[in-house]
Amino acid sequence: MGFAFTEENLEELEALAKRYPSKEALMLPALWKVMEQDGYVSMDAIDVVADYLGVPPMKVYGVVTFYTMFHLEPVGTYHIQLCRTLSCSLCGKGEILQYLRNKLGIDVGETTPDGKFTLSQVECLGSCGTAPVMQINDTLYENLTPEKVDEILEGLK
Amino acid sequence: MSETLGRKVKISVDGRIIEAEEGAILLQVLLKNGFEIPYYCYHEALGPDGNCRMCMVEIEGKKRPQISCDTFVEEGLVIHTNTENIRKVRREILELQLINHPVDCPICDQAGECSLQDYYMEYGLYHGSVEKGKKLHFNKHLDLGRNVMLDQERCVLCQRCTRFTTNITQTNELGIVWRADHSCVSTLPGRKLENGYAMNLVDLCPVGALTSKDFRFQQRVWFLTPTPSVCHGCAKGCNIFVDHARLKYHDDTIYRFRPRKNPDINGYFICDDGRLSYKALQTGRLEKALFEGREIGFDEAVRELKKSVECTTGRIVILADANLYTEELEMIQIFANRIGAWLYAPLESYIDEKFADEWLRNAMRAANAKGVEKLGIATTMPEIKRDTLLINFNHPVADSLDVRRRIDFLTHAEGPETGSRADLTLPIAVWSEASGTLINIDGLEQRCEQVIYPSDPVPTVIRWLEAYELGERCIV
Amino acid sequence: MREVKIVSRRFDIPGSHTLDIAREHGAYEAVERAFDMGPEAVLNAVCESGLRGKGGGGAPACGKWRLAKEHSDPTKFLAVNCDESEPGTFKDRQIITKDPHLLIEGIILTCYAIGAHDAYVYIRGEYYGFQKILQGAIDEAYAAGILGEKTLGREYRVDVTIHRGAGAYICGEKSALLESMEGKRGHPRLKPHRKEPEWYFGRPTLVNNVETIATIPFIVKEGPEAYRNYGTEKSPGTMLFALSGHVKRPGIYEAEFGTPMMAYIEHYGGGIRDGMALKAVIPGGASTPVLTADEARSANLDYESMRSLGSSLGTGGMIVMDESVDMVEALKNLLAFYHHESCGQCTPCREGTGWVDAIVASVLKREADVADLDKLLDISWIMNGKTICVFAPAVSGVIDAFVKKFRAEFEACLRSHV
Ligand SMILES: Cc1cc2nc3c(=O)[nH]c(=O)nc-3n(C[C@H](O)[C@H](O)[C@H](O)COP(=O)(O)O)c2cc1C
Ligand code: SF4
Ligand code: SF4
Ligand code: SF4
Ligand code: FES
Ligand code: FES
């Protein structure tokens, strides 16, 4: 369905535009606003962003698909992103993954039937010293243990 | 680079000394001098992009092989194009290209003009070595619109197509989406190519990923003869190759038009309308002369023509198509003088503003409008009374004229009639079956040789008029 | 081993991320000093300090700064690289959360030295929580007249803008980072034909890592000699080294260059997990060739020592592996990362990363034979030195080191051995 930036977001983008030599620089900031508003980037939003930046929609589409944090489809309310890279793997990521799978009853790439949780594996989150780690939406959780995972998920209900 | 372009310098390639312009793109120079350098992403019209990494050569003094498409000529370069190391680079890259690329040349439409296939044969790769890898599956039959089909599995991601729609047509329909080995060429979901030059993509694609719906599976390319010619679709006069063949049980037939490079006119490209205009040359043609609705032979037709012209006492008006070659128009001019006729080639009727754009497509949709002007033929519309004898040489406006007496020289059998019907209708050859010169909208004169030699040719304008000259006077 | 804190000096002070506390402990003092010295002198100090970039390449800061400064275009930019996506690396994160004012101070000094007025900090999208802390500090600095039209009352404008990435390791590569900031896909650019600055919308631009920039205040305030006091002749100063994997106390600890690797691991990391022996160390982020335990024992934490071992110092993020680690699995883990993160632009890397990942997967499944290991090394060869950026060569180095140094483990997994 149609997309439009909120007044507030438009104002923020306008203010940001003054800080760059070209409006095209607002590509990622604008897409982040879209993500903030809708949780994903719809085709309508792609047209709106393209129009706002004065670039072809195809360019926006190319960008959206390049960056893994942008989604073309809605994901669960809580997007669990478990780090799968080496330090986390060395420190017990496998166990956490198994635990999450069992607890949520879904596999990687799936969303719970109530639409609440989506489970993903992601690459190194830049927190290897506190491995294993996961990020739920924008919040990072470190030094995970099954007990800690319980606590965290409990807090989200 | 460009600021120094122009000075001739010497470089050494595989022991041969070559002269080249300083600052020129090395790959271009190597190709021009006959060195075989495999490459995908570079294209003269699109410039270097450096993504395929196939065009590597060794340059003395550089530790690593360098891509020749992004190396500029300087005095004293010493280059090796065919060392063991370079051959290995090419072989490995080729093998990588083939991992996600189906080796199905026999059923690929691009077979015969696919760089991948050429290199693959040359470097002696075989199925076995690539089977171990994974093959990713992409969409094999994407209709991009405008007659262009995309097979993502055959794509080597050279980005020629995306650079064409981004930089050349600036219509931006295509782009690379996703990342890593999931990258692929795509349009926006649900949207299509929408530019009048889209079929150039098929020529640009170095492999069989982009194919023409019009040409797909029509003809294996190795049977085709490419004859240079000029498109007659508008006054721009884009240079083309006419790909044609005379196959068993078939007459000499055109299978497609392709752009032929001419920096002064069309660069590397042609428009789609022009490209597809070959079809009209071989459909709906008028093949036999008709007199009062009855087919007659050439000699009889000449006699009837003479009779009609010489027995006329009233005013004679000749209309000549501005697509005819200058030589044909000249002949008509002489003919007009001889019989005391008024000759016109009204240009108004060719103007099609909707067709025009800022690039190649010209509103004047007659190939030789400038030739008409140069010969001093009147370009206005004459007044034609009902008792005028109209002799029409394929001019489009003639269709709608209502006159009592008319003689039509036509390439095509008439379409829906609005005007009067001629007593005498004579078939003439289309431009591909004749030769002559054209002057394009910018005043450039171009010679076109005859391309098609049908086994039973239709007479050209010149042949008709020569026969007329030789024929006996009409005895009333 | 002498302990030293140059960049991490304020890390342990409670509330160090706030302006008041930071200023109490000396923040922005170097700015005053720089304005007295003049831009040329600031640049000279950086050159004399021998400071090398901390983003992974270790290139001397001096040369890059000069290229930007001396370019005739009066409009120049600074892009600060906080993409921090190299596995094993989590140091820049400490700076922006524990001492963001140190980074802002460094940005002001750098801008002043090269003649830039607009700085962008490109932060990986996942660091959103940390980004907010840095943004808070930036806001405070604006409010206090440190950033904006004037810098602490002096006639010099510096604006700092955070640019949030969106999940792409390759955007840490400097030219891809600038492409990304220009609103494009993060495709690295072709290498220039001569020495020149980076370009942002056609304007000369300096790209430096967060930690590099955060080192500038010390150099300006204490002088280049004070910095050279630490480290070795060719690797002067200190670095925020990191430990992750099988050590007792993983984390970030600053140390001077030249510190023996094992001494560092013992002293700060508390050694290897109990009862286990060391097997291997990846010395400077996943993209540096792995060292065997023996090599690690002879390694010093500096560029030259690492190079002599055929590896490199990279980001200084060490991933420590004990004897429980299956090296085939470890390589597979890393190759999945590169397979996922290749920008997909050039053939050897786009196709190669996928293929090597598939081959090692087949080794793990006991479906491969010796010919496949050879193929693995062949692909590694074509990825080395033949691509647009150094992503693929790094992958090549990773593969070669794993397969050559632990070949027996790979061979034990081959089909013929089952
Ligand atoms: C694949 C790749 C990833 C990189 N990632 C980062 C990064 O996350 N952060 C960083 O500062 N430098 C990274 N770099 C290095 C940058 O290209 C650049 O050299 C660096 O930011 C320059 O800063 P420095 O000289 O201060 O180190 C990366 C390089 C490559 C090839
Ligand atoms: S479709 Fe053809 S031209 Fe386009 S990127 Fe693929 S191989 Fe190149
Ligand atoms: S622009 Fe005119 S001459 Fe050129 S190809 Fe199109 S129709 Fe033919
Ligand atoms: S080496 Fe890899 S990451 Fe670098 S440009 Fe090529 S495909 Fe992209
Ligand atoms: S490996 Fe998981 S955060 Fe780095
Ligand atoms: S032609 Fe040179 S890299 Fe593709």
Can you characterise this structure?
The complex is a heterotrimer of chains A (157), B (476) and C (418). With 157 residues, chain A is an alpha+beta fold. Chain A has helices spanning 7-17, 27-38, 43-53, 57-66, 86-90, 93-104, 146-155; strands at residues 78-83, 117-122, 134-136, 139-141. Chain A folds into 2 domains: 7-66, NADH-quinone oxidoreductase subunit E (Arc Repressor Mutant, subunit A); 78-156, Glutaredoxin, CATH 3.40.30.10. Chain B has 3 domains: 8-82, Ubiquitin-like (UB roll) (Roll), CATH 3.10.20; 97-212, Alpha-Beta Plaits, CATH 3.30.70; 289-474, 3-Layer(aba) Sandwich (Rossmann fold). In chain B, a hairpin with a 5-residue loop joins strand 21 and strand 22. The longest helix of chain B has 16 residues, at 84-99. In chain B, 21% of the residues lie in helices and 20% in strands. Residues 126-133 of chain B have low confidence and may be disordered. In chain C, helix 2 runs parallel beside helix 6 and helix 16 (370-383) runs antiparallel to helix 17. The N and C termini of chain C lie far apart (48 Å). In chain C, the strands form 2 sheets. Chain C has a 5-stranded mixed beta sheet with strand order 3-2-1-5-4, with helices on both faces. In chain C, strands 7-6-10-8-9 form a 5-stranded mixed beta sheet. The radius of gyration of chain C is 22 Å and the shape is globular. Bound molecules: flavin mononucleotide, iron/sulfur cluster (SF4) (3 copies) and FE2/S2 (inorganic) cluster (2 copies). Residues 53-57, 59, 81, 83-86, 170, 172-174, 207-209, 212, 389-391 of chain C line the site of flavin mononucleotide.
Quick overview:
The complex is a heterotrimer of chains A (about 160), B (about 475) and C (about 425). Chain B is an alpha+beta fold. Chain B contains twelve helices and 22 strands.
Q: What would CATH call the homologous superfamily of the largest domain in chain C?
A: NADH-ubiquinone oxidoreductase 51kDa subunit
Secondary structure tally: strands of chain A: 4
- What's the structural domain tally of chain C? 3
Elements of chain C, N to C (H/E): HHHHEHHEHEHEEHHEEHEEHHEHHHHH
**N- to C-terminal distance of chain A:** 29 Å
> Overall pLDDT of chain A, averaged?
97
Oligomer: heterotrimer
Largest sheet properties of chain A: 4 strands, mixed
Strand arrangement within the widest β-sheet of chain C reads 3-2-1-5-4
CATH topology of the largest domain in chain C: Rossmann fold
The value of Rg of chain A in angstroms is 18 Å
So how many helices of chain A? 7
CATH class wording of the largest domain in chain C: Alpha Beta
- Overall 3D form of chain A: elongated
- Main beta sheet of chain C: 5 strands, mixed
What molecules are bound to this protein?
flavin mononucleotide, iron/sulfur cluster, FE2/S2 (inorganic) cluster
Number of helices of chain C: 18
CATH topology of the largest domain in chain A: Glutaredoxin
